[in-house]
Amino acid sequence: MPSSSSPSENQSAIEQSSLEYVCRYGSMRHLGVMTAKQRFRYGDEVVIHSDRGTEIATVLCEATPAAVEGILEPTEGRILRRLDSTDRGDWSQMSEMTRRDLDMCQPHVEKLGLPMQLIDVERLLGGERVIVYFVAEGRIDFRALVKLLGREFQTRIEMRQIGIRDEAKLLADFGDCGQEVCCSRFLSKMPPVSMKMAKLQRASLDPSKISGRCGRLKCCLRYEFDTYESLASELPPVGSKILTRDGNCRVAAQDILAGQLVVTTEDKRRIMIPASDVIEILKVGEGTPVRGKKRKK
């Protein structure tokens, strides 16, 4: 009689066949959901087959619904194996060739007179393609360049035009905080950042202090902006006329994190009070709208 599998063995087989992990790969720190036939842990280096080809990736976490929901346009693929010594040796050789690859591409760009600046060249472990990253002010017709580079590399060439922030992602090392720049360490998408965010957080408005390695406003200005905006919406805007235990006052300034207000009293004194002392907002001033006009002690 054929042997039958135990329930625990069947359950284990089902779990193994449905394993999925979020992996980070490529120079641009792409995030993808990769299927696997064995278990992995955070930080494991693996070889994957992505939509681009065979390449090296780092396992970040299991692909739970919550994790996948937080990824914008995740790619799909599968984990082939753990990274072994042979893979490391091959990848080390490819990494050393990057500088030579750039030097190989530059003469062709100059020969064709293309208004573009080459930033980086990325090879895949499997050799399926070579990705050339460049910056340019407008659209570039690089079809002739692709043909020339295809003869040089003897593989598929992919030209990828990137922005200033992406350039920093590829080339920058450390920021003013002493940490590795966020775009290189963990950001997969560049969030929009505005001067409004710096003003709300009382950051210095000196461009040299709030600009990142890319020359644009620092991405970290966005991290706490939603919290500041939420807290600010609970406070009467500057210029509001309010009723407090000390009588009628006008809001002169806000201390958002402390939840306090600098107010001017009717006898022209400037004092600081907690927001909980506001009994009623008599007239809303200009600024961030409040969610309610009345507060109870």
Describe the structure.
One of its GO terms (cellular component) is cytoplasm. By secondary structure, this protein is an alpha+beta fold. The protein has four domains: 10-83; 92-162, GMP Synthetase, Chain A, domain 3; 165-223, no CATH class; 233-283, SH3 type barrels, CATH 2.30.30.140. The protein has helices spanning 7-17, 65-69, 85-96, 98-112, 143-153, 164-171, 182-185, 195-200, 207-210, 225-233, and strands at residues 19-25, 30-36, 45-49, 54-62, 75-82, 117-123, 129-135, 156-161, 241-244, 247-255, 260-265, 270-274, 278-283. Helix 4 (98-112) packs antiparallel against helix 5. The longest helix has 15 residues, at 98-112. Mean pLDDT is 86; it is low at 289-297.
Which terms would index this structure?
single chain, 297 residues, alpha+beta, GMP Synthetase, Chain A, domain 3, 4 domains, 10 helices, 29% helix, disordered C terminus
